[in-house]
Design a protein that fits this description.
283 residues, alpha/beta, TIM Barrel, eight-stranded mixed beta sheet, 10 helices, 45% helix, binds adenosine monophosphate, binds manganese (II) ion
């Protein structure tokens, strides 16, 4: 019997802050021997169609996904993955609003950098994003290209990270808003990279608000956290998910497929989707 092929349910393309085009992401997944991937760009579904077409030609299943930025009731930023998006229409307008806000924020970041004596232009950042949902990584790449910082790490440590002088908050959803948008679009709402913030109390509170799943496997998790989160998912009846959060070659050790997520987790997610749909029909 051949070994079951792994999957990877968290990755980014040039549609947001990844370095590789959607078709290239599907090709990289094929090279890595993956059976399925979810493309989960920040605030956009724009890369899904291209990744799907490329994946279909290579035998890699591509699941439509998105990564939303939300804040919990205490004001702590929490990312939510919408996986298995089946009806994008109700989501699109909200995503467009977030992309517009991201662009305004990027210009504000440039203004702050200019005030700090870094003569980065808005055009350089917009060119770096090339129409994508703009994020701090695009600003960071423009800073590197201009020779003002050596690498991404320095860009975030000196200027762009939370609490640093060019940091500007993003526009974000509340958790119930994020879950509702994902559910309207026919998807599953999954708490992304919970890590140490994923306490039992927070996860249980999100589950009570309708959250479907927990990202158990992520490169940011220690082995102990992964074990704890897997147990928590079972206990709270949340579907497990996992992925590399790949942003392209510059991610170093964080390679595509590196979390070795079992294909069975996709079966669990599909069972949950079927349950959700049955509920929606009778509701
Ligand atoms: P934004 O969505 O604009 O707030 O940018 C957040 C993105 O920046 C994340 O999704 C990561 O891709 C990236 N990022 C966050 N922190 C760092 C860091 N310290 N070094 C490199 N990339 C980072
Ligand atoms: Mn990112
Ligand atoms: Mn994230
Ligand atoms: Mn991500």
């Amino acid at each position: 019997m051949s070994a079951p092929r792994a999957i990877d349910l968290h990755m980014h393309s040039t549609a947001s802050d990844g370095a590789v085009a959607p078709a290239g992401v599907a090709a990289a997944a094929h090279t890595a021997g993956l059976a399925a991937i979810a493309l989960t760009d920040h605030d956009t579904l724009a890369g899904v169609e291209e990744a799907r077409a490329a994946g279909a030609a290579l035998g890699v299943r591509v699941i439509a996904g998105v990564e939303l930025s939300a804040v919990d009731a205490a004001g702590d930023e929490t990312h939510v993955l919408g996986l298995h998006i089946a009806r994008p229409a109700p989501l699109q307008q909200a995503l467009e609003g977030f992309r517009t806000a991201r662009r305004t924020r990027a210009l504000e970041i440039v203004g702050r950098l200019n005030a700090l004596g870094v003569p980065l232009t808005a055009d350089a950042v917009l060119a770096e994003a090339n129409g994508a949902a703009i994020g701090r990584p695009h600003v960071a790449r423009a800073l590197i290209a201009g020779g003002w910082v050596a690498d991404l790490r320095e860009a975030f440590d000196r200027y762009l990270g939370a609490g640093r002088p060019a940091f500007v908050e993003k526009r974000r959803l509340t958790m119930p808003e994020a879950f509702a948008l994902i559910h309207e679009a026919g998807g599953l709402a999954v708490y992304a990279h919970p890590g140490r913030d994923g306490t039992r109390e927070r996860v249980a509170a999100f589950a009570a608000l309708g959250m479907d799943g927990l990202e158990v496997r992520h490169p940011g998790h220690s082995p102990a956290e992964t074990t704890r989160l897997a147990a928590l998912a079972r206990e709270l009846d949340l579907v497990p998910s996992g992925g590399s959060d790949w942003h392209g070659a510059a991610d170093g050790a964080r390679t595509i497929g590196c979390m070795d997520v079992p294909a069975e987790w996709l079966d669990l997610q599909e069972e949950r989707l079927a349950r959700r749909r049955a509920h929606t029909v009778t509701a």
